[in-house]
Structure to design on (310 residues):
């Protein structure tokens, strides 16, 4: 039995789907982050290998059964990262067809074939869109040092800053600050500061669930943080709506990423702003998991190769 693998890799985790030739999902797995821009090529490669091995083991499938794989990895819009990742995968799966793309490309594929904009709100933030002629444009993807505004990294950073300012004003931790400390698993802020200095990608996004829950419970600090994040995210989408000339047309504006669906308040804030971008916009949440989309793209690689060989 021949199979394919699909990967969705970001700054926090890697999801993997193992699928047979009929499109039946055989296994799901998850491993650590695989954005090579954030964690490096070595760590990214290890995460993909771990995810693949877990999926293969769950399905009791052999590595030699993999006919093709598609890896949608954040950060691989840069050729100097995409090339080495492709080479590592080819060495691990000899004979398999290999396609490396960005996580944005997976999201746009999941949105269908027509005009669409996909807003990604995960560890970072980005948007990708396509007009009626098939022209594709992207916005964001600049990394946490420059931007990524509205993503979990940025939200976590702002939440920790707010908690520290509260402590500066009163000399004590606010309820919000205590929740963040518990979520991060540290006894005090000195430990948080040290760990954040060493591994910001690991620490900052982990504060997002606290902000999401606090906002839904009515906490004004959390709501202010998420309202501003919604402004930043909608601005990304607005950039592509204007650039692709979609304002007068009916089109899908899909949301994807790890922060979507985690807070009723945050979702409502984002949707409210997105509805104002164009009269014909139809807001959706991508229902197909990106890793499954990647696996289906891998199936297309197999089909295309078979057609070309006949």
């Amino acid at each position: 039995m021949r199979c394919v693998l699909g990967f969705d890799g970001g700054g926090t985790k890697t999801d993997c789907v193992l699928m047979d030739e009929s499109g039946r999902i055989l296994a799901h797995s998850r491993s650590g982050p695989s954005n090579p821009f954030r964690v490096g090529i070595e760590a990214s490669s290890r995460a993909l290998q771990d995810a693949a091995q877990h999926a293969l083991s769950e399905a009791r499938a052999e590595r030699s059964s993999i006919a093709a794989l598609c890896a949608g990895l954040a950060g691989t819009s840069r050729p100097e990262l995409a090339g080495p990742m492709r080479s590592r995968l080819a060495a691990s799966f000899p004979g398999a067809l290999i396609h490396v793309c960005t996580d944005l490309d997976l999201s746009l594929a999941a949105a269908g074939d027509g005009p669409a904009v996909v807003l990604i709100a995960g560890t970072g933030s980005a948007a990708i869109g396509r007009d009626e002629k098939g022209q594709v444009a992207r916005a964001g993807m600049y990394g946490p040092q420059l931007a990524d505004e509205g993503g979990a990294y940025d939200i976590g950073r702002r939440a920790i800053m707010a908690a520290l300012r509260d402590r500066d004003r009163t000399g004590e931790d606010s309820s919000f600050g205590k929740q963040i400390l518990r979520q991060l698993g540290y006894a005090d802020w000195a430990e948080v500061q040290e760990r954040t200095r060493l591994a910001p990608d690991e620490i900052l996004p982990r504060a997002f669930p606290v902000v999401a829950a606090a906002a839904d419970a009515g906490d004004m600090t959390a709501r202010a943080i998420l309202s501003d994040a919604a402004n930043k995210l909608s601005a990304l989408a607005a950039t592509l709506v204007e650039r692709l000339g979609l304002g007068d047309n009916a089109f899908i504006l899909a949301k994807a990423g790890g922060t979507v669906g985690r807070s009723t308040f945050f979702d409502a804030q984002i949707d409210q702003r997105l509805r104002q971008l164009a009269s014909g916009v139809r807001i959706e949440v991508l229902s197909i998991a990106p890793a499954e989309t990647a696996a289906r793209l891998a199936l297309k690689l197999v089909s295309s190769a078979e057609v070309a060989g006949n």
